[in-house]
Design a protein that fits this description.
Number of strands: 20
CATH topology of the largest domain: Nucleotidyltransferase, domain 5
CATH superfamily of the largest domain: ATPase, nucleotide binding domain
CATH architecture of the largest domain: 2-Layer Sandwich
Largest sheet: 5 strands, mixed
Mean pLDDT: 91
Helix content: 25-40%
Bound molecules: adenosine-5'-triphosphate, magnesium ion
Low-confidence stretches: 377-400, 405-412
Radius of gyration: 23 Å
Structural class: alpha+beta
Length: 412
């Protein structure tokens, strides 16, 4: 990788669009810029209005560009949503070399072979995660390069999405004037940011509780085993506050951020604030305790739904704990509440970089880490410093192999 390579991630969320610029210097990541903008055109994590989404993307990108003083031309785009599905597949090839030594070309061929799968016409492949290789039937091989064999097999997980959702996402980004360097499943990216190797091995649910959606990713046996998206999140809490305090969404959101507390027993009755109510020009006073009485039941419901979904996916007895991330877990006292409701080990994951130490940045930061590690050990430059020219496209070719080589270390 060239020194000072720049990688830009784009997370199109229900409440915010986030652009993160990472500078990669000798393999280490520095987050040098962040841009965010209110998200219009997204409901429950899905694009419902192209023009509004394009404008919101533009706003976030402009914000990041102004912050760092560079032009952003290419981005890695995060994808999530209930259209995402995983399926296991198997690829087999005969080793091509006369001396039967497995080379990189064989590995590329077997990975390509594992992508051959019957898919419904409305779906397409958006990613591939190798789990293990087999050489002449011998399993659990992490890296078959240099081994001698006749038959090379791979077992992998194929990530698919609906063509419509992928198309809409790409269309919005392109209409915002950006080239797409790659599409990355946000669960994989945040999993990389948030989970330790052991957590992935022993069985952990990563729950990203955002504004409009909660994305669950189950990691087991070292790799991503299941994903699911529930149409619930912080917007529900805000909406409950709206109704409970009879105020507008805008005020309810501000009150939630300033005084919100997820547990009644931790809330203060003497922390008081005034609220402008709908249909009246009179303010009414409430306490943090009143607010917690509204928030706690909703947060309990969200955790119960998460638990039920993990059960439905068949992982209830196989997991060792939960790791929470996403903006909603910033709510004070969310962790003890989650402990009680999920009855399991729980911790909160926050990116450990200056400027993005907030759980709502987990997917965006995770994407930069993911790209750095898997997609391009060398690659094209996603943003230009003034006066710097873009790296040539043929460097990208080495990216697949680099991605795959590093993939073993993480997923096996
Ligand atoms: N300090 C805080 N206290 C309470 N809630 C918070 C806090 N900070 C952020 N939130 C809530 O987190 C949510 C936003 O989280 P996030 O940015 O992860 O969502 P998103 O990515 O925009 O949406 P989604 O992932 O659902 O599409 C909002 O509902 C917001 O109110
Ligand atoms: Mg999100």
């Amino acid at each position: 990788m060239s020194n000072n390579d720049l990688i830009v991630s784009l997370d199109i969320g229900t409440s915010k669009i986030r652009v993160i610029i990472g500078e990669i210097s000798n393999g280490a990541i520095n987050i040098i810029g962040v841009g965010s903008a209110d998200s219009e055109g997204i409901r429950k994590g899905a694009i419902v209005d192209i023009d509004q989404t394009v404008q919101s993307i533009r706003n976030a990108v402009d914000h990041a560009e102004r912050m760092v003083g560079i032009g952003i031309s290419e981005v890695y785009v995060g994808i999530a949503g209930n259209h995402i599905a995983l399926q296991s597949n198997h690829g087999v090839v005969a080793v091509s070399n006369e001396d039967r030594e497995i080379g990189e070309e064989d590995i590329e061929r077997v990975l390509q072979a594992s992508k051959v799968v019957a898919l419904p016409p409305e779906r397409e492949i958006i990613g591939l995660v190798p789990k293990q290789f087999l050489v002449d039937g011998l399993a659990d091989i992490q890296d078959p390069r240099g081994m001698i064999g006749v038959r090379l097999e791979v077992e992998c997980t194929i990530i698919t999405g609906t063509k419509a959702a992928v198309h809409n996402l790409m269309r919005c980004v392109e209409k915002a004037g950006l080239r797409i360097s790659g599409i990355i499943l946000m669960s994989l990216a945040s999993g990389m940011m948030a989970l330790t190797k052991d957590e992935k091995q022993m069985g952990t649910v990563l729950a990203d509780i955002g504004a409009g959606a909660t994305t669950l990713a189950v990691f087991e046996g070292g790799s991503l085993a299941a994903v699911s998206t529930l149409p619930i999140g912080g917007d529900y809490v805000t909406s409950d506050i709206c109704y409970g305090l009879k105020t507008q969404t805008e005020y309810a959101e501000k009150i939630k951020l300033k005084y919100g507390c997820a547990r009644i027993e931790d809330a203060a009755d003497d922390l008081r604030f005034k609220v402008m109510r709908v249909g009246s020009n009179m303010e009414k006073e409430f306490s943090q305790l009143d607010l917690a009485n509204i928030i706690e039941p909703r947060m309990q419901e969200i955790f119960q739904m998460i638990r039920q979904e993990v059960k439905r996916l068949g992982y209830h007895d196989k997991i060792n704990g939960y790791v929470l991330t996403g903006g909603t877990v910033s709510l004070p006292s969310v962790l003890p509440l989650a402990h009680t409701e999920l009855e399991s080990n729980v911790r909160i994951a926050v990116p450990d970089y200056i400027g993005v130490k907030d759980p709502s940045f987990s997917s965006g930061v995770g994407m930069i880490q993911y790209v750095t590690k898997y997609v391009r050990a060398r690659g094209t430059t996603a943003a230009k410093r003034p006066g710097k020219t873009k790296a040539s496209g043929n460097e990208e070719k080495t990216g697949v192999m680099a991605w795959f080589k590093n993939m073993f270390k993480e997923f096996i």
